[in-house]
């Protein structure tokens, strides 16, 4: 009898499950949508996507082609893995393909955040940002600060076990803070850094505003950060410190700056700069350390480049723009690291109206996951794609080839590319000229959905 009940129970559960799956498929069976599956009501295929990672994408592509529908991370989504189509999507924001980042991210980063604005407002905010990180700004104001910061941040590591993940995270945040508010960065960093880390976690959470959730903590962190930055603006104005040679100084000298921003816009722009460069710069730096450790020949070549730069200088001379230009192999290491580790898997867009794409009809409000990961391992673009070979980037055409989306593409292509490369290059300069290192061992590295070492990446460091 018990067995019969168990069998009946199991059959009932199976029937309910398959009815739910079927109902969800029928619900989304609109005419003209691309092929694909929608998974469970509400949850869709999120669990499979997160568990199987890149394999989920590859399997779906094998079944449905490079343009398929799914339901992941809370939204009906079109996944596009076709390089030509990806390029088209990124180039055509004006046709209604705007950024489609999750609600939690938009709530926490603010309504003037660059990902939240479109059209002329986006152009204006992007222009304001570009004026802060122009090549002249990098040469005259930002690089000296980056150099000064890295020199100090990478001191006293000799004979220590260092969690390089933690150090590169601090590096990315503190170095950006110094470029934004040079004189105050030291005094505000203690209060700012933990709030910033909470803000980052909040943007990656579900938008459930309940006590104890990362989302609630993220919103609270945003409030604290707004109060720190408002105070900073007030103090600068009160002490006539608008003349400071840093990003905040530029933003406050409105008579010289053609971009006039309100305080709210200034604050959201600062949060944008801190946020956008944080995970990308820190993770690329950490993974460069990892790959250099695993590839002694590459490390040898990189060190040769940096020693040659150091030899031409007095011990305390800073890195300047000419040195940066001479770091050709370093740049190649950074590109190869970004490619092989795939720091950015893709970017998100959403449709602002019903539209036709690739011969299919995509409803308004659907998310489009421009999944660019696979192109990083394309045999034709990168022969022996799984080997770490920075030399491939020394060919000029490699960086400019049109399907490389390491820094995105179209009207949203990363404006911080050269700044990010300058930061990572300066970090590597001090790291490889001062130290040798070995991994302590036993640390795990996760590659998906984000590249991270869940328990840190520990290295034993000694003087070089
Ligand atoms: C290795 C370092 C970096 C990588 C790999 C990287 C990658 C990217 C990618 C793929 C995008 C496109 C996002 C999209 O299309 O939705 C992007 C956009 C952006 N990045 Fe970077 N980034 C890096 C460093 C930085 C830095 C240092 C900054 C600081 C200013 C920055 C600021 C931005 C901003 C503001 C956007 C949005 C642009 C817009 O919407 O117009 N990035 N980045």
TrEMBL record:
SUPFAM superfamilies named in the record: Cytochrome P450
UniProt membrane topology term: Single-pass membrane protein
Alphabetical GO biological process terms: brassinosteroid biosynthetic process; brassinosteroid homeostasis; response to light stimulus; sterol metabolic process
GO molecular function, one term: iron ion binding
Regions annotated as coiled coil: none
Pfam families: p450
Gene3D superfamilies according to UniProt: Cytochrome P450 (1.10.630.10)
Cofactor: heme
Compartments where located: Membrane
Record's GO cellular component terms: membrane
Binding site for heme: 414
Assigned keywords, A-Z: Heme, Iron, Membrane, Metal-binding, Monooxygenase, Oxidoreductase, Transmembrane, Transmembrane helix
PANTHER family per the UniProt record, alphabetical: CYTOCHROME P450 26 (PTHR24286), CYTOCHROME P450 85A1 (PTHR24286:SF169)
Family as reported in the entry's similarity comment: Belongs to the cytochrome P450 family.
Designated name of the protein: Cytochrome P450
């Amino acid at each position: 009898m018990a067995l019969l009940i168990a069998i009946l129970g199991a059959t009932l559960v199976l029937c309910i499950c398959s009815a739910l799956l079927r109902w969800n498929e029928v619900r989304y069976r609109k005419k003209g949508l691309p092929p694909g599956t929608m998974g469970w009501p509400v949850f869709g295929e999120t669990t499979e996507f997160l568990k199987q990672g890149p394999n989920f994408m590859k399997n779906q592509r094998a079944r449905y082609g490079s343009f398929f529908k799914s339901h992941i991370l809370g939204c009906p989504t079109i996944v596009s893995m076709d390089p030509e189509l990806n390029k088209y999507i990124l180039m055509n924001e004006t046709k209604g393909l705007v950024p489609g980042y999750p609600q939690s991210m938009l709530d926490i980063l603010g309504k003037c955040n660059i990902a939240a604005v479109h059209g002329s407002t986006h152009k204006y905010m992007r222009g304001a940002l570009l004026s802060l990180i122009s090549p002249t700004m990098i040469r005259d104001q930002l690089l000296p600060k980056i150099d000064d910061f890295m020199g100090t941040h990478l001191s006293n590591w000799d004979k220590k076990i260092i969690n390089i993940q933690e150090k590169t995270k601090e590096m990315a945040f503190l170095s950006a803070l110094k470029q934004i508010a040079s004189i105050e960065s030291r005094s505000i960093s203690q209060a700012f850094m933990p709030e910033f880390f909470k803000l980052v976690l909040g943007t990656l959470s579900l938008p459930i505003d309940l006590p104890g959730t990362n989302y609630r903590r993220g919103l609270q962190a945003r409030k604290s950060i707004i109060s720190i930055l408002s105070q900073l603006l007030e103090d600068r104005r009160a002490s006539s410190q608008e003349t400071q040679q840093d990003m905040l100084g530029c933003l406050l000298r409105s008579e010289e700056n053609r971009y006039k921003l309100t305080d709210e816009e200034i604050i959201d722009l600062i949060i944008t700069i801190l946020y956008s460069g944080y995970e990308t710069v820190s993770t690329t730096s950490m993974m460069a350390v990892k790959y250099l450790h695993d590839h002694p020949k590459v490390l040898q070549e990189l060190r040769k480049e940096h020693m040659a730069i150091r030899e031409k200088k007095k011990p305390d001379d800073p890195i300047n723009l000419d040195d940066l230009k001479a770091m050709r192999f370093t740049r190649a290491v950074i590109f190869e690291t970004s490619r092989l580790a795939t720091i950015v898997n893709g970017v998100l867009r959403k449709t602002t109206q019903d539209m036709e794409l690739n011969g299919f009809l995509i409803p308004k409000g659907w998310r489009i996951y421009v999944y660019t990961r696979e192109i990083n391992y394309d045999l034709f673009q990168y022969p022996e794609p799984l080997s770490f070979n920075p030399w491939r980037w020394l060919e000029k055409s490699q960086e400019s080839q049109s399907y490389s989306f390491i820094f995105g593409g179209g009207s949203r292509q990363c404006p911080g590319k050269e700044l990010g490369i300058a930061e990572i290059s300066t970090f590597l300069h001090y790291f490889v000229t001062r130290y040798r290192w070995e991994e302590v061992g036993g640390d795990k590295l996760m590659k998906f959905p984000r590249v991270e070492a869940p328990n840190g990446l520990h290295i034993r460091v000694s003087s070089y």
